[in-house]
Amino acid sequence: MTGPKKVLIFGAASSIVYETAKLFAGDGASLFLCARDDEALKRISADLQVRGAEDVGVMTFDAMDEGSIERAVKEALVKFPDIDCMLIGHGTLPDQSVCESDIAEMRKAIEINFTSVAVILTHVSEHFRKLGRGSIVVISSVAGDRGRQSNYVYGSAKSALTTFLAGLRQRLSKSGVNILTIKPGFVDTPMTSDYKKGLLFVGPDVIARGIYKAIIKKKNTVYLPWFWWWIMFIIRNIPERIFNKIKL
Amino acid sequence: MSGRLFESWGRYPKVKHLGELVPGSPGSAGELIMSTSSTVLPRGLGRSYGDSCLNENGYLVSTKYLNRFKSFDPASGTLRCEAGVTLDEIVRVFIPKGWFLPVTPGTKFVTVGGAIANDIHGKNHHKAGTFCNNVLQFELLRSDGTSTICSKESNSEMFRATIGGLGLTGMILWAEISLIPVKGPYIEMDSIKFNSFDEFFEISKESARDFEYTVSWLDCIYAGDEIRGIFMRGNHSSRQESNPDKIVHKSGAWKTFPIDAPPFLLSTATIKLFNTLYYNKQKGKSKSSTVHYNPFFYPLDNINHWNRMYGKRGFLQWQCAVPSTDDNAAIKKIIGGIKKSRLGSFLVVLKEFGDIPPLGMLSFPMPGITLAVDFPNVGKKLFTLLDELDDIIVNYGGRIYPAKDARMVNRTFRSSFSDIDIFSEYVDPKFSSSFYRRTGEVK
Q1: Which residues on neighbouring strands pair with residue B374, listed in sequence order?
Q2: Residue B427 DSSP class
Q3: Which residues contact A87 (CB under 8 A, 6 or more apart)?
Q4: What is the distance in angstroms between the CA of the first residue and the CA of the last residue of chain A?
Q5: Sheet holding A221-224, edge to edge
Q6: H-run or E-run covering A125
Q7: Contact B346, B275 (CB under 8 A)
Q8: CA–CA separation, B97 vs B408, rounded Å?
Q9: What digits encode the pLDDT tens for the residues B336-351?
Q10: What tens digit of pLDDT does each residue of B141-168 get?
Q11: Residue of A nearest to B89 (CA)
């Protein structure tokens, strides 16, 4: 059993997305890669071709610029009209303490992590519905499961994203398009380079293998690694009066 | 001084660093290196055994995100990739396409940058030379922010200094290597028992012509004046494999050595028992089989953290190369000394190098014989023994391998590498390592 054959990717330079794209490339898939940074795109595009990607298209986009998103989606669908998978994984981990007083930073965190993804999904959902197949895979986060003082701005953007995806899933359920929500826990990537790495951290390749498997199995929502389901189950169910007294 | 503790594969020594610089791309490495006034040392997977991958009170510069392939030419087998790409990654991507590494060490868990900086060798040294005999060119970044392409033709002296240069001449950003074509993932292997030095040399001579890969395991506890061991030799098999799961064994190790082992695990008695069992596992004098490349080249890679087997104090590996003589007096003295000390473990490897000259000023292989021995770190007794062994090697015009070393004295290093003074002119002023400060400076 192999993965998708024509994939549109947003946030190609993110470690988790790149590791997943490596698995697609190994299957000989064709990829259309979008990322902010041109140098990163060139590196990844060359890399994925060496790994076996049949055809690779690239385009830069800025998550804060709706026009650039629209251009990227259009270009990709012209190049690969028979797309069978879409993977969205761009994002930013804002400094929570800055977001608590800086309106612009707070807004930016929400726009990059939620609004821009919703824009992309709105652009592609109709195309997928007409095709009547394929997977739309979006990287959300366990942080969206409950607001916590340590990162509720990021968390609320991811929470909105998870909710958006749930609705989109219901809307497209009859058309045969699978919507897959990925909720990774702690991942050792440049995004978390300032964090002290505890036992719960895993490499982006571990998450990527989980995503790949979930696509093939047409899952709806997966926690990666699996034990995060249990951790978040507990965190979600801590009564508010206790929750408010603990550091988390 | 506060800081972050780093160790190497031998887990001795453990030293404090200011920290680790982690460039996200080759393009950002220069700026990061220039941003500090302290010394820096590039580091891949830290699989050197001693302190050549450590930089006490300075920074390490990780190549973990310099891990992209750049191009591959299926007509010639030329692969260009960034310095942090691991041999594991190359094997997993290219074995299914019918290509293999031109030279591989006993572990896949090293980076291309590290392979060049230590000019590593493998079981096919007598046929293919060292890793860098198969490197076409690389880009080297210096601490002033400039970078140059180095090859045999251009910047050839910097090329020769960087090969085996222990990361001291600058940071390798990417390199171009020649892969070799193979039919499939299998090796046709013979293993032959030997019971004497003469027999070892006889099999080795006879095998060098027809076998791409040769190596021997040696029982260093075995009593008596002679030696015993198992000679392994092999060639790439023409047998093909269509099942993708069998071409590349599932990535990641399937076992992890869970804890630091207690000291009794590696007592002389247990090693003696292991060696006897291992030697006698093979019933006949010789045996032929077809094996996957993983157990043939990388028998220990399946156990994560096998270095924990040696306990908290870690271990030292000692590897020498010494020119061949008619009576092979040097290697006999060395093995005799190790046997008498009863300090060695079961990981003992003996191989005859070929005479393809390596390119680096500090490349380790030389025509002759090489011996690698793991020693649990039992302290002073061991260090005294290793000093004695070093002296024998120096007397016979041999070398000690810096990638494995944590304790040789300055004099031994200088006598091992006669080009050391020329080399020192190419060392980047901002690059340094614990090893080089210990051995490289004239005292």
Answers
A1: B317
A2: S
A3: A7, A8, A9, A10, A17, A20, A21, A137, A138, A139, A211
A4: 41
A5: A56-60, A30-35, A6-10, A85-88, A135-139, A178-184, A221-224
A6: helix A116-131
A7: yes
A8: 43
A9: 999 999 898 888 999 9
A10: 999 999 999 999 999 999 999 999 999 9
A11: A51
Q: How far is A68 from chain B (nearest CA, A)?
A: 24
> For A112, which DSSP code?
I
How far apart (Å, rounded) are the C-alpha atoms in residues B386 and B374? 11
Determine whether the interchain pair B70/A40 forms a contact, defined as Cβ–Cβ distance below 8 Å.
no
Residue B288 has pLDDT above 60, yes or no: yes
**Burial category of A161 from C-beta neighbours within 10 Å (exposed 0-12, middle 13-18, buried 19 and up):** buried
Q: Is some CB atom of chain A closer than 8 A to the CB atom of B70?
A: yes
- Nearest chain B residue (CA) to A44: B68
A56 bridge partner residues: A31
Inter-helix orientation angle A38-51/A15-26, to 10°: 30
Residue A201's Cβ-count burial label (10 Å; 0-12, 13-18, 19+) is middle
Looking at B350-409, list the stretches that DSSP marks H as alpha helix, in order from N- to C-terminal side.
Answer: 380-395
Instruction: Determine the 3-state secondary structure of B233 from DSSP.
Output: strand
Distance CA A58, CA B55 (A): 40
Residue among B44, B55, B49, B43 at smallest CA distance from B17: B55
Which of A147, A163, A156, A159 lies closest to A240, judged by CA?
A: A147
| Distance in Å, alpha carbon of B19 to nearest chain A alpha carbon | 12
Note the pTM of the prediction, 2 decimals: 0.93
Residue B69 confidence (pLDDT) above 60: yes
The residue whose two tokens read 């070398």 is B399
The whole-angstrom separation of Cα B105 and Cα B301 is: 11
**Which run of H or E residues covers position A38?**
helix A38-51
DSSP H or E run through A123: helix A116-131
CB–CB of B305/B257 below 8 Å?
yes
* Closest Cα in chain A, distance from residue B69 (Å): 4
Torsion sign, CA atoms B385, B389, B395, B399: negative
Give strand ranges (E) for chain A.
6-10, 30-35, 56-60, 85-88, 135-139, 178-184, 221-224
Q: Which two tokens stand for residue A161?
A: 């994203």
**pLDDT for the residue numbered B1:** 47
Task: Tell me whether strands B59-62 and B19-21 are parallel, antiparallel or unpaired.
Answer: parallel
- Cα separation of A30 and A144, whole Å? 32
- CB contact under 8 Å between A39 and B97, yes or no, is no
Cβ atoms of B439 and B411 within 8 Å: the answer is: no
Cα angle vertex B29, ends B28, B30, to 5°? 95
Q: What is the CA radius of gyration of chain B?
A: 21
In the 3-class helix/strand/coil scheme, how is B26-38 assigned residue by residue?
HHHHHHHHHCCCC
**Percent of chain B at pLDDT above 90?**
82
Cα A138 to Cα A154: distance, rounded to the nearest angstrom: 15
**pLDDT of the residue at A1:** 61
Q: Do B25 and A47 touch (CB under 8 A)?
A: no
Would the CB atoms of A190 and B68 count as touching at under 8 Å?
A: no
Q: Tell me the sheet residues that pair with B149.
A: B139
How many C-beta neighbours within 10 Å does residue A237 have? 9
Compute φ and ψ for B136, nearest 5 degrees. -90, -45
Say if residues A92 and A109 touch (Cβ distance below 8 Å). Answer: yes
User: How many other C-beta atoms are found inside a 10 Å radius of the C-beta of residue A105?
Assistant: 16
Per-residue pLDDT of chain A (248 residues; tens, 9 = 90+): 679 999 999 999 999 999 999 999 999 999 999 999 999 999 999 999 999 999 999 999 999 999 999 999 999 999 999 999 999 999 999 999 999 999 999 999 999 999 999 999 999 999 999 999 999 999 999 999 999 999 999 999 999 999 999 999 999 999 999 999 999 999 998 888 777 888 889 999 999 999 999 999 999 999 999 999 999 999 999 999 999 998 88
